[in-house]
Write a structure and sequence with these properties.
This protein is α+β, with helices and mostly antiparallel strands. The protein folds into three domains: 96 residues, no CATH class; 136 residues, Jelly Rolls (Sandwich), CATH 2.60.120; 140 residues, Jelly Rolls (Sandwich), CATH 2.60.120. Helix content is 22%, strand content 31%. The protein has eleven helices and 24 strands. The strands form six sheets. Strands 1, 5, 8, 9, 12 and 13 form a six-stranded mixed sheet that branches. It is globular.
Length: 455
């Protein structure tokens, strides 16, 4: 609403009655923000249902449900501030550098953010009930998310042993080893899903890993963090599950949120390629690459952050084979501020692959490159990891800027590593993929640029 002290109102008040009415109509018609009322039913509900409801639903880890108008109206000012600051939905990739094509980008568009801001500023009107979209088709609590994608439940489920999460606010860890019969013959993994128990386990499992020992091999069977629950390997890419007796070793990090969870268990579901089918390429899945423990120091020996200070750490990893990078997932703790992944090619060229410039320890998101954007790196490429820590009061997650901070497993201590989706290629496969990309690029240029550029 225009106030009487505004320049617009002073201009209108100085006109005659007829001219004033005409000026008001002209003013409102000329303003796009006022040209059409934004309502929850017609404009905002579709955005929330598409982008927010999977977490903001009853019995989820999100602090409130946003499925009804009444709920959204109650939290309208908070919704406005979070989406305008791009805090929600959580997506922390720096938009100014690196690759920007991700298959799991959950961020809102500028237009969607503007719609929500206009709705709240207009008083959060509900609108016509007839405009309300149907409630989103959400999976039942505790269901396998990938079951809908593959049309069947997991081919194999492994489970941790129970753990009592106590209500004292401290980090807790659980690392049982669970033997099971294993497979009679080797199979190839197409996808996995890491599923904390519904609903309380979902709220207290911060991150975790399941490692498989079978057939004389050890593989990273499944990796989880808040914001990263499953992984589907690319077409004709898989991870080998060896035959023979097997054991799964769990590494579960619990972070209580004011509740106790007795006898909590975690499940991992595995979807295999069809029996007898072998994909062309074997992947290692997410591989841990450190930015700390460089120069022969003990792990984390180089992490020392002074009170009210900052620190930068860098680590270099040389690729012994041509490599396809499918994703990256920074792992820092509460003082973590930034982490980036950069490629230094054998010819000296440097390329920023991805940078998280607003890291939040409460989220453990795997940023998954789109198929045509996944970095294809030749043998000898160096991966440069850079971590930035902020132990000042300007860091909103900093529990105490007066403390010296060193390496440790607790959230109040620090770590510095990145989980990188790595598929190692032989030279022939690398050359084939490079040729395919070049041919596609040439085809797009002949048609007048990429589809995105033509829009």
């Amino acid at each position: 609403m225009t106030s009487e002290s505004s320049p617009h109102w002073r201009f209108v008040r100085g006109l005659g009655t007829g001219l004033a009415a005409s000026a008001i109509l002209t003013l409102f018609a000329a303003s796009p923000a006022l040209a059409q009322e934004v309502t929850f039913a017609k404009d905002v509900a579709p955005i929330l249902y598409e982008n927010c409801a999977s977490c903001h639903r009853p019995n989820s880890f999100a602090p409130m449900s946003l499925l009804t108008y009444e709920d959204a109206r109650t939290y309208a000012p908070r919704i406005r501030s979070r989406v305008k600051a791009r805090i929600m939905p959580p997506w922390h990739v720096d938009r100014t550098v690196g690759i920007q094509d991700y298959e799991n980008d959950v961020s809102l568009t500028d237009e969607e953010i503007e719609t929500i801001v206009r709705w709240v500023d207009a008083g959060a009107p509900k609108g016509d009930e007839a405009d309300m979209p149907p409630l989103p088709d959400l999976l039942e609590g505790g269901a396998w998310q990938l079951e809908q994608r593959f049309g069947r439940p997991p081919d194999l489920i492994v489970q941790s042993t129970p753990y009592d999460v106590v209500d004292n606010g401290q980090d807790q860890w659980w690392a049982p080893s669970v033997p099971f019969a294993g497979l009679e013959e080797e199979r190839w993994i197409k996808a996995y899903e890491f599923k904390p128990a519904w609903p309380l386990g979902l709220r207290v499992v911060h991150h975790g890993h399941a490692y498989l020992r079978a057939g004389g091999r050890q593989i990273g069977l499944a990796h989880y963090g808040v914001g990263k629950r499953y992984e589907i390997f690319a077409e004709d890419v898989g991870m080998l599950f060896p035959a023979g007796e097997a054991e799964v070793t769990w590494s579960l990090h619990y972070f209580p949120v004011g509740i106790s969870v007795p006898q909590d268990v975690v499940d991992v579901g595995i979807w295999f390629y069809p029996e007898g089918e072998k994909p062309k390429t074997e992947t290692r899945g997410e591989v841990l690459l450190r930015a700390d423990r460089m120069g022969g120091m003990p792990r984390g020996g180089d992490i020392l952050i002074p009170p009210h200070g900052q620190q930068v750490l860098q680590g270099v990893h040389v690729l012994d084979q041509p490599t396809l990078i499918s994703s990256f997932r920074p792992h820092l703790h509460m003082r973590g501020k930034e982490m980036s992944l950069e490629a230094i090619y054998p010819d000296g060229r440097r390329e920023m692959l991805g940078k998280v410039s607003d890291y939040k320890h409460i989220w453990q998101i795997a940023y998954q490159f789109s198929a045509d954007a996944r970095p294809l790196l030749p043998k000898g490429t160096m991966l440069l990891l850079t971590s930035v820590f902020d132990n000042t009061a300007a860091n909103p997650l900093n529990p105490d800027p007066e403390q010296w901070v060193v390496f440790g497993r607790r959230g109040v201590d620090e770590m510095s590593h990145m989980w990188v989706g790595i598929t190692e290629l032989d030279q022939e496969e690398y050359d084939r993929l490079v040729a395919e990309r070049r041919a596609k690029l040439v085809s797009e240029e002949e048609q007048g640029g990429t589809e995105e550029e033509r829009r």
